[in-house]
Design goal:
With 231 residues, the protein is mainly alpha-helical. The chain folds into 2 domains: 63 residues, Arc Repressor Mutant, subunit A (Orthogonal Bundle); 143 residues, Four Helix Bundle (Hemerythrin (Met), subunit A). It contains 10 helices and 3 strands, in the order αβααββααααααα. The chain has a 3-stranded antiparallel beta sheet. Helix 2 crosses helix 3, helix 4 crosses helix 6 and helix 4 runs antiparallel to helix 10. The N and C termini lie far apart (58 Å).
Length: 231
Amino acid sequence: MPKSSRRKIYRTIISEQIKEQLMEEIFQHKYKPGQRLVESALAKELSVSQSSVREALRSLVAMGFLESEPFKGNTVRSLSRQDLQEAYTVRAALESLAASDAAMRITDAELSELEQLCEDMIEAARAGEVHERTRLNIEFHKALIRASGNKLILKLFDNLQFASWSLITGTYSTIDPVEIALRHRTLIEAIRSRDPERARRAMQEHIEEGTTSILNSFESTGSSEQNQEHH
């Protein structure tokens, strides 16, 4: 049984890495809308198993980056500003509710955990460790949701794969990485105040600020791609 568990964990990690790489490439417009992603070809190109690629593609379909059609396979969707806006709007609504609940329920130990994650995130940002900063950011938000006591929000966060959206935010935001990390201190102070409305508003603003930056980055990347095609 332990051996089987280890294999499963390894496969999940690989599929996550594949998903993240493909997400970045779709976001950067390296794959055109309507372009087919062939499981066997990707597996060969990335030197991974087809099952790992299959899991990654399934996740990208769930997130709306790909479309899956019978007899046609997986093709790249035409990702629009509205698609991104909707994803971040839903995330803001869920996490704002979590922050509001957390302000009323959080324990001192949970607050300490958030503080430590925040300081580690700032340190990673200052050191230029992008992936570590992103990982800590995801852990911070999940720890905050757990502190809310609302298990459904945590389940939705996982099912809607908002951790993967955090990867896009961390990679393509036009805001300085250290500034992004420092902004989490504002969230902690709002929750520590035990004021649900202040905590809700702080989270809403936190995600909305990141959203604006991501949308600008997405549009500028798309414009650059179009300019290259015309020249």
